[in-house]
Design goal:
about 250 residues; alpha+beta; Rossmann fold; OB fold (Dihydrolipoamide Acetyltransferase, E2P); 6-stranded mixed sheet; about 20% helix
Length: about 250
């Protein structure tokens, strides 16, 4: 379930946004509409943080940026105005924010969203921005279907669906479900991560990206980490970091 908060004092516009959202995101969604800054502030204090916030910049109760002067919010935020639309991800932990004009190609936007720890947020926010601005119709993102690996003097393709996990130990490696291991020359794990379907692959820690179908069992650890044991013949053990553990459980249990 993806929770979306709309803060807009124009009720007709807010309802229109809600209808657009319903046809944009494949996952189950819950949308809350609030008409002003003070109401939104009180709501955020009493409820768990939503996955995405859509806010009109200029409200009758003030400028929406004022909401975050004394309130810590870490989820992606899409700000809207009557003249244009601006995607804005606030990272209140470091008091920094990043702006991207709607429709402008940028590599920073998805990377920044990735740092929030949820790929669902990344693709939901991207699709919402495209649809709300009317720049594009929602479309299914395309992901890499195969990787080329070097074996002796040959290059051979490995279908992405056959890959159990990717690891990084000085070099990048991929492991297939059958237990084969190949060196992969594709930059960093961050580069590889962007090419994968987040519904199937998860970045468990800095060294490992795992396929959901490769997970044989899970064990909670005392330090709030999660230990993943991959299926035969791999039998690899993969730690999910304490910071990523809550997001992993939500990603896996869907």
């Amino acid at each position: 379930m993806i929770k979306i908060l709309i803060v807009n004092d124009k009720y007709g516009t807010a309802v229109k946004m809600r209808k657009l959202i319903a046809g944009t995101i494949a996952e189950d969604i819950e949308v809350e509409i609030l008409p002003g800054i003070e109401i939104a502030r009180d709501w955020l204090k009493l409820h768990p943080e939503p996955d995405i916030i859509l806010m009109d910049v200029h409200l009758r109760s003030g400028v929406s940026f004022d909401l975050f002067r004394y309130l810590k919010v870490e989820c992606p935020i899409i700000f809207t105005t009557e003249n244009d639309y601006v995607s804005c991800l606030y990272k209140m932990r470091t008091s920094q924010y990043m702006l991207s004009l709607a429709g402008e190609e940028t590599d920073e936007y998805p990377v920044a969203l990735d740092e929030s720890g949820s790929y669902q947020r990344q693709h939901a926010a991207n699709n919402l921005l495209q649809v709300i601005t009317g720049l594009k119709t929602p479309s299914q993102p395309s992901y890499k279907e195969k990787f080329i690996v070097h074996v002796r003097n040959n290059w051979i393709p490995v279908n992405t669906r056959d890959i159990a996990c990717f690891t990084r130990k000085h070099l990048n490696y991929l492991y297939t479900f059958s237990g084969e291991k190949y060196i992969l020359d594709y930059g960093t794990l961050e580069d590889i991560e962007k090419l994968l379907n987040p519904q199937s692959f998860y970045r468990a820690n800095r060294q490992t990206i795992v396929n959901i179908d490769a997970i044989g069992s899970m064990k909670p650890l005392g330090n709030q980490k999660i230990l993943l044991v991959l299926i035969d013949p791999l039998k690899m053990e993969v730690d999910v970091s304490r910071e990523k553990a809550p997001y992993f459980k939500r990603w896996f249990d869907r």
